[in-house]
Specification:
alpha/beta; Rossmann fold; globular
């Protein structure tokens, strides 16, 4: 069975109800779709950064009229992401992924560290990475890619 691993960009499209992603998802076995722990990290960092930036504004302006609404939206987005993450298996940064990551680092592939970690995890499970980011991920030898968008 093929394992489809959603990159952060594809997961974000899925969360926003992208019809192409949803259609493709309906065509595969639900048990064959996962995300990496790095994608989960990126989603949480983004949501927490939004909350923290509003908290910083709050300290400066002391409760501007629009701030509570924006903060409520940011917390709602965080909660939604947490709930979404609970619906998909999350692939760990395993020992095999660590070894693949080390190999990729030694090859001096010019890809961001988070993307390289995602690639290592996907390679470690012999999966296919579902992403729009071909520009970076095509640099990783042996990594299979598909774009569902």
């Amino acid at each position: 069975m093929t394992l489809w691993v959603l990159d952060t960009d594809s997961l974000s499209l899925l969360e926003r109800g992208n019809p192409k992603i949803q259609e493709r998802l309906s065509q595969v076995n639900a048990d064959s779709v996962a995300i990496s722990i790095v994608t989960a990290e990126e989603k949480m960092k983004g949501r927490l950064a939004a909350i923290n930036s509003l908290s910083g504004i709050e300290r400066i302006v002391r409760v501007a009229s629009a701030l509570p609404s924006r903060l409520a939206l940011a917390y709602r987005a965080l909660q939604s992401s947490i709930e979404d993450l609970q619906t998909l298996p999350i692939l760990p940064f395993s020992e095999l992924a660590k070894d693949r990551y080390r190999d990729l680092l030694q090859q001096k592939i010019r890809v961001g560290s988070h993307d390289l970690r995602i690639a290592a995890i996907v390679l470690s499970v012999e999966g296919i990475l579902v992403t729009r980011n071909r520009r970076d991920f095509e640099k990783v030898p042996g990594l299979q890619l598909d774009d569902w968008s």
